[in-house]
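User
New here, explain this?
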Amino acid sequence: MRKTATLTISLLAAATLLTGCGSDKKDADAAETGHASPSGTVSGGAKGSDAAKKGVAHQVVFEVGGTGASRVLWIGNTNHFEQVTLPWTKTETVQLEDAELKVGVTVSVVPGSVEGPDGMLKPAPCTIKVDGKQVADNQGGKSAAPCKYKLED
């Protein structure tokens, strides 16, 4: 149990740190110089350039099962980390743009721990559905790995 709780906390902390390393100042500086970071956008590029290329809009559903309350980190259009009441569902529309059309984008959900039938903490079950089709799960909470899926057009 301690290993599972430690792994879950470590995954949540790592995901939070990795997704929170951006800076609005960096994106603003990039807009002024015309060089964009991967998460930023630059307006007013070269004259005569085409508008941003966009792919198909996908409906992404994040689900975390269980009962009670838990912390959940999910990454869709943006990064989110909050306390939720279980069971929990979040739906977002994700549309790939520009370079994402070539390389894709990873959507994920990292569930917190829930109390199992034996009273021990275990990862909450999670699933991701894209356009109605289940594309990722953590085997009903048997795996400590987060649910993630590389969305491509």
Remarks:
- The chain is about 20% helix and 45% strand.
